Amino acid sequence: MVLNQLKGRLKTARRGHKLLKDKRDELMRQFLDNVRLNKQLRAKVEQGLTEAFGSLSVASAIMSPEMLEQSLLYPRQSVELGMTYQNIMSVNVPVYDFQTRNSDPSEIFPYGFAQTSGELDDALEKLAEVFKDMLELAQVEKTTQMLAQEIEKTRRRVNALEYVMIPELEQNIRY
Question: What is the reported pTM?
Answer without folding.
Answer: 0.82
